[in-house]
Amino acid sequence: MAYQRASSTQVFLYAIPAMAIAFINLPAAIVLPTFYVEHTAATLTGIGVVNLLRWWFDAATDPLVGYLSDRTRSRWGRRKPWMVAGALVSSVATFMLFRPAPEAGSWYYGGWLCGVYLGFTLFSIAHLAWGSELAVNYNDRSRISTYYSVMSVVGSILFWVLPLVLAPLVGSSEIGPPVINGIAWVFIVIMPVGALLAITRVPQGRNLSYQNPLPLLQTFRELRFNTPLWRFVAAQGIWGVGQGMYLSVIFIFMRDYLQLGDRFPIIMIWFFVVQTVSMPAWARLMQRFGKHRSWAFSWAVYSLIQPVVLLLEPGAAAFVPAMFLVALTAFINAASYIAPMALLGDIADYGALKTGRNNTGNYFAIQTLLQKANMGIGAGIAFPMLALFGYQIGASNTGMAFAGLVVVYIVVPALTSVIAAMILWNFPIDSRRHDIIRKRLEQLSTRAVIVEP
Fold it and tell me: Which CATH fold would you assign to the domain 8-447?
């Protein structure tokens, strides 16, 4: 069953919507909770509770959307109808979330945040599964994942450029109401346009299943026996909680402790530029050393870099050394953009070989749930922990209050990275084993009678 490799143009068009998702995703985790605490009636504790509750909402919707995406039959294929729905829902919810009234509280934040993530669920699960079905082999997945990751970083850069563009108009590059409101207007343009280009110009991909689908509960039971999947989940879940805590307070750390709040957009732009140019290097490293070992190595090194920031003297003099540390962190974190999508496609192939069914949407539903759980649980722990230590956002904090910030920003993320690296190091699917899995799937699919949508 010969299958034509997706062209670079097709992969680029496929990846464009990732820019729109990233434009919202990271800001929603890094600056939006702080913005709501400072500019609306929401509280630190309320934001933390909402982020935890929203995770349960994701836990209910993500697997269901993955299951339905795998079983959708339409003239446009399995994935594209879900992407259309996701683009519409996320656009409306984002417009409301990023334009709150001063009297808006934690429940307003939580309701529209759930709407945004529901839209992202509808879109991203189908989009990621589709990318896996466009790939041909172990290294081709890394190629597609690299395109996807680069566009994600471009979206993040676009967000941090926005305060600098608006600075002449509003008199400051601080992330305040004008920037937050501007995000909403930009997103409702780039999301529909990106989705339209991908849906209309990129082929549907390929399904190598050779058995009929099962009902929902039986499908979930089959996933239990995919041991590489749960090793992946354990590693990324542990790392992700620490990373979620880190991302939730990075803006607070840079502004309140290092006193670089006015330069924070520049720091983040630098971070994502370095991350973008680092991705091809990590793609080559993954081809040589394997996806899982390259990824685990990056986590281990990250845990050593983080504490160095405490050696910097707060104030303007910290800017240059902070940029150097940010560059190192960006290079190391680039691996975490490429590896998950590429590795999970291999895990889905293993599952298809064992069960005969294409449950790729379910696998990426788990991945999407993990990503959102990382942010939700991370922020849900980080903000109440800051409150427990007596931390005051925007104030001068010393003693126990500052110790709480160090625990949330440095200690927990470093520990979780080390534990996750140990779990992932001896992951069972490498290039050789995946080639065996893929060839066996080709043979079984050739013999089977499966009607494609």
Answer: Growth Hormone; Chain: A; (1.20.1250)
